[in-house]
């Protein structure tokens, strides 16, 4: 498995240089997630499960969030 070298910070991180950010990178067919304070540890998944997670977050089905309209 290849290691990504083009990490992008979440827009919710405020664009700062601190170590309190979620970062995402892709390699063919794979999505990588990590926290900037522990860059050597990352979660690897594929597009379908992460899309399902994001759909659940947007729909307010996880953590009691407010559904988006």
Could you name the key traits of this structure?
single chain; 69 residues; alpha+beta; 4-stranded antiparallel sheet
Blueprint of the fold:
Blueprint: E1 8-9, E2 22-27, E3 30-35, E4 42-45, H1 47-58
Antiparallel strand pairs: 1-2, 2-3, 3-4
Total of helices: 1
Tell the overall outline: globular
Q: Count every beta strand, where a strand is a DSSP E run of 2 or more residues.
A: 4
Oligomer: single chain
Q: State the distance separating the first and last CA atoms.
A: 38 Å
Largest sheet: 4 strands, antiparallel
Please give the domain count.
Answer: 1
Structural class: alpha+beta
Written account of the structure:
The chain is α+β, with helices and mostly antiparallel strands and 69 residues long. It has one domain. Helices cover 17% and strands 26% of the residues. The protein has one helix and four strands, in the order E-E-E-E-H. The chain has one helix spanning 47-58; strands at 8-9, 22-27, 30-35, 42-45. It has a four-stranded antiparallel sheet with strand order 1-2-3-4. The model has no long low-confidence stretch (mean pLDDT 80).
